[in-house]
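Hi W.,

Here's what went into the run:
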Amino acid sequence: MSDPSPHSDHTLHSVKKIEIIVRGEKESFVRDLLDDSQISGYTIHHNVTGRGEHGFHEGRLLFNDRDSLVMFLAVADEETIQSIVDGLTPLFEKSSGVMFVSDTSVVRLDKFISEGEEA
Amino acid sequence: MPIERSVVSARIENASEYIGPLWPLQTFNAANPLVGFEDEPFDRAVQKAGKLLGGRGYPEPSIFRQAWERGEIDPEILTSRLAEHGITQRPEVLLKRMASDERNPVVDPSDAPLDRVVAKWLSAFLDQGQADWPMPNRSEGFYKAWRAVAPYDGDIPNVSRAADLPDTLLDAFDAVLSGYPEERWESIFVYHLAALPGWTGFIKWRARRANTAWQETYPITLADYLAVRLTLATRLKEAVAPERAKDLPADGTDRTFLPKIWLQAWEDSYRDRLLTDLSQVEASSDAEDDRPDAQLAFCIDVRSEVIRRHIEKQGHYETHGYAGFFGVPMQHHPYDSAVSVKSCPPIVDPKHRILDRPANGKQAQADDHDWWHELDDGRRSLIKTLKSNIAAAFGFVEGSGGFFGGAMAARTLLPSALFRLGKKVGDWIPGPMRFTEPTVDRPAPDEAAPKNGLPVGLTHEAKILYAEAAFRLLGWTDRFAPIVVFTGHGTQTPNNPYKSSLDCGACSGNPGGPNAKVLAHICNEDAVRDELRERGIDIPEDTVFLAGQHNTTTDGITLFVDDDNPPVPEERLDQLRQDLAAAQEGATAERVNTMNATVDTGRAQASVYETERRAADWAETRPEWGLAGNASFIIGPRRLTEDLDLDGRAFLHSYDWDKDEDGTALENIMTGPLVVGEWINTQYYFSTVDNAAYGSGSKVTHNVTGNLGIVQGNGGDLMTGLPLQSLQIDDEHPVHRPIRLLGVIQAPKTRVDAILDRHASLADLLDNEWILLTVMDPTEDNALYHYQPGRDWASHEVSVSPDPALANPLS
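Here's what came out:
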């Protein structure tokens, strides 16, 4: 889908966005999962604060990098996001954490979806 | 449908939760072997772990009997605990019943051939520089490397060429798992990971935590391990999913279990006696006014408690307790070393890289050192080559036997003389700590290229952060003495693969002196002091910060001071050194009493000589006790404990509730050092209650493998915890008392509650009784409250006779 724009080169392309929040100790697992999924890039927020099913997790700690939460943000086509979801679903059977998948749009599609994958 | 790699990875990740990571020997980290079970209440967790890993969860009856006979379990407390469960028999009867209830350990159906073959290939692949003939193709990863050599292994039937084995990791899983539904995979993985918890714990550490050059060069994951093991299981006709792997280990049951009741009675007895002592001291304490001659900040380590007490006796000295990495999350690159080491707690990621460089004006000493060091390196390398070369080995032994025989005789018969010779050599050939300084400042941009992603040195802001954090956490914002010493600690023990377990736990099993040097350097900077002054921490101009290191084997304290150009008046320095030497004598006299040592009490410094012998004797299996005995973690000002003899059993973290209105300091102490204290305590606990399953067994029969771990005999699984000789004075008498860590915090109860509200993981440790907690509330006249699982508090009521009976178990 493309939205009309006064600037012809600023066309918006629909993609999927995934936000993942896990305990700090699961950061490596999620990183590996994203790397293996051939996603082109992702963003990590450390020391995230929030409340979940297991209670509150305060982020800013001086002497503990394990117990705070980490948030990942990534954008890709639906198939790639689905493979990430497939890996996280069993994980969340045992570990605390959440993921949100939503529709979003990007301008520079080639930054998020490699050539040949584009639908 | 082919299996999804991401799903297999997630199932392995879940299964690996049951396995605790195992650090290599060089950075032995105290960790709870049952860390994967901490989300369950203690009693249920030990039942579950017992089923999976085969270890016991409570002390043997003989340990309870010894505690009972030493008077460490208060009869009234025990009787009332038993009565809560409707048990009215006499303790002696119950001790006998517990002993007769002990059954011989059930030996599981053995996977011996499978375990043996897997362990053989793991030790070959994971070797970190010990093997002269390393396994080929390791850079391709464990599965591929094993697949290439498996055809040559006579223990593996029906594999004559690599093509007989699945091509890739995923093919291997596909071949083995295709017959099982996905919901079975996790329990299959758990079973096979738990079969060799030492090796799998090490792979977990190396693959997830380490980022070492070994892992980068020769990668291995738990998926590799499982692919090899499951493939081998099918080839060796062993069950991929035996009956006992049908389900994940089920939860334990709530039960009336005698050892559980006895353990609680033992813990309550220790707690009540400690609290009685603490309450009495607090009532009689006076405010401090005059300026001390010197203040020394030590690590919170239980060994510091002994030396601190003896230093305070020598004169007008004050001591503080702070985590022994001094709050500086750094990676340290020692002067002579080819590698950097992590020098902060296991739960903290290093943020800075600190290198040792020759200080200004010390290049001549550095050159002397380098000359000798290179000579020594060449000698070692030559000997290694001669020893391991097939042609040269025989001639080498013939030719050098006399020399090595003499050296062996000297090490065995004259360890004390060797210690003194070592000291003299240290005077002639300067050690790096004498002529180097840490790169605390950020180097010029062209030198500052980050290595391993960590910047060298600290920014001005980081310096302020660490200096302020130190003083805020300790509640130490005024009354600075003319001399303040940050004193790290390290052990001295030759021929001991467990050396690292005796070094500083807050520095990931390394000595803490380098961190002390960094903080002292920061605090001596005018720009830092100016900034601190604006923030209400007023350090007088005449205060000088020094760094030092406490040798926990000999209790000697080395001050890292340039004696050619001392930063404080010489007479003050001399006095301090004399008083530290006197404190060493007192502390060693106290400690050798616990070591089954024969000391000539009429001879001056006899106890110092005995500890120096232990520091030099290559055959000494008990150089020092490390943190054995650790039982409590006291967070409060020193005046709360300074009149007490806590017998080297308490972690002491300085804290002043009155200077921490928003609770930030306490929050950082509770989420950092207290949690590390729990790791240490649980490691000592489980290593003591089951030394075979959770410890390392006897040093007499152990061997170093792969330059990374210990095996018993010539193979098998890696041993995981502390060796028997670190915990027991002999085969029957533990020196460590296996009780859970008691936190004692002097702070308003509401403040502790607010912190637990914000930290679910910490609250879990308390709710699940991995840590016990008592709060002494200064806003309620120091009323005592005990934490109850489920976020509740109970008032302290019981009072017991103040008879700690904490001394040597042999007495």
